[in-house]
Amino acid sequence: MTPVFLVAAALAVAGALGVILSRQPVHSVLALVLNFLGLAALYISMDAEFLGVVQLIIYAGAIMVLFLFVIGLLTARKDPVEREAGEPLPLQRPLSIAAAGTLALLLGGSLLVARFGGRPGVPTGFGTVKEFGRHLLVTHVLPFELTAFVLMVAVVGVIVLVGRKQA
Amino acid sequence: MEALAVAAKSFVVINAVLVAFAYILLFERKILGWMQYRKGPNRVGPWGLLQPIADAVKMFLKEDIIPKDADRLVFQLAPIVSLAVALTAFAFVPIGPGLAVVKDADAGMLALMAVLSLEVYGVALGGWASQSKYALMGALRSTAQLISYELAMGMTVLAVFIMAGSTRFDAIVASQEGLWNIVRMPLAFLLFFIAMLAETARTPFDLPESESELVAGYHTEYSGMRFGMFFMAEYVNLVTATALITLLFLGGWLGPAFLPGWVWFLLKQSLVIFLFIWIRATLPRFRYDRLMAFGWKVMLPLAALNLVVYATWAALA
Q1: Which of B110, B115, B121 minimises the CB distance to A33?
Q2: Has residue B208 been placed in a domain?
Q3: Average of per-residue pLDDT across B173-179
Q4: Is position B233 within any domain?
Q5: What residues in A contact B147, CB-CB < 8 Å?
Q6: What is the interface pTM, i.e. ipTM, of the complex?
Q7: Tens digit of pLDDT for each residue in B111-162?
Q8: Is residue B16 part of a domain?
């Protein structure tokens, strides 16, 4: 329990709470960025500098900016948030409680395993550029390439959908 | 103890950078003045040397105005984010062997790029929270611009990483012993230089605040020290960007031994800053669609080509 871990974890939890508690969508986006900052700090505190940096570049620096773009434009005029009667989705609360319970069970289970199961700790070289590259391009090369293919399909799809029509 | 040392170092560096900001601004105004056949600031102190202090005092005394419709929290947060991100990025910049706030970071340059990629937030949030069409337009433009040119910048930096075989600044500088990267990869230098101009939103890429069409872009509604913070962030980013050009392409602190490394570094960096100012005095502004087309259709393919060429070279050598 280093001080860095405590601060970073508190940041991440505060960010996560902020996402679901804020009324203004842009505030939610900001809270999520805060959450990502906390996560990145956690990675770095585990000597996984590269993972932390990638977390910042990809999620905080690129994906959340896109979110901010869309949400910022949709709510450019600050209209009061519409309050509908009751829950927008049926069974919203029971379902979310069930999901949270499952997550808590999994988390508690892994904690117990880590404490008593004699699971080895963090492997050496965890999160360094070299180790990360080896896992990505040697151990898991097929899923990696498949993901790249799926993304490529998405890019082509976007161009087909919104591309300029030939005059 | 270590935390205290880092805090003390950060304090010194932040103050040094902010003083540097004030005098780079004066330097810029003087040079712009000379290039335009006028004298530049010359009333406050000898050669206008006290002008930055007068400006700072004025900034602090100005009224702090928050627009009625603004999202107060985000409006107040945006300039802080902007300046904090700019200063954090500078923490990774070494001005001599081991002379950085964060020493010997394993992913040094990558970490710096990660922090720089957060720079968008201050601008985007400031523009959005102002609830003004000029500010929103400015924020949209600069977000699009920053993201587009970040891509080309990243690709170019990858080529530098491959040649150095590392993302650490000391290794990148050491790899340029005898042959600076500006000679070894001139195209990469040109692309990176242009990308840095765009990332710092300097002329000819100053569309985010093009005063002739958008009043002042994303900080139109800001006044007093909040505006001052945006302004400071812009110049701290200029310092970081020129330092990066020096480190990645001009051999960093390498130079003949009769001067210490950090002096060479600062000399080279000053030269790059002068180039930036010279460009500002010379070139007109891009048109917005041309800017986007240039970023995606010229910069990005060239950066990719550059990457492939040097990756092949590194693989064969």
Answers
A1: B121
A2: yes
A3: 81
A4: yes
A5: 62, 65
A6: 0.74
A7: 888 888 888 888 888 888 777 778 888 888 888 888 888 888 888 988 888 8
A8: no
Do B242 and B273 meet the contact criterion of CB atoms below 8 Å apart? Answer: yes
B198-243 pLDDT, tens digit per residue, is: 888 777 877 666 666 676 777 777 877 888 888 888 888 888 889 8
Q: Can you give the pTM of this predicted structure?
A: 0.81
Closest CA–CA distance from residue B71 to any residue of chain A (Å): 8
pLDDT digits (tens, 9 = 90+) for B98-124: 677 776 666 778 888 888 888 888 888
Q: What is the pLDDT of residue B234?
A: 85
Q: Which residues of A touch B136 (CB under 8 A)?
A: 76
> Cα–Cα distances in Å, from B303 out to B154, B160, B163, B270, B312?
9, 11, 15, 26, 14
Distances (CA, A) of A67 to B133, B146, B315: 20, 16, 39
Rounded to an integer, what distance in angstroms lies between the CA atom of residue B229 and that of residue B239? Answer: 15
Structure tokens at B239: 């310092």
Nearest Cα residue to A44 out of A4, A3, A1, A10: A4
CB contacts of A65 in chain B (<8 Å) are 120-121, 124, 143, 147
Range of the domain at B176: 62-316
Would the CB atoms of B71 and A78 count as touching at under 8 Å? yes
The reply to whether B53 falls in a domain is no
Q: Could you give the CA distance from residue A155 to residue A57 in angstroms, rounded to a whole number?
A: 20
Q: Where are the beta strands (DSSP E) in A21-143?
A: none
- Domain count for chain B: 1
Q: Which of B97, B45, B224, B248 has its CA nearest to residue B159?
A: B248
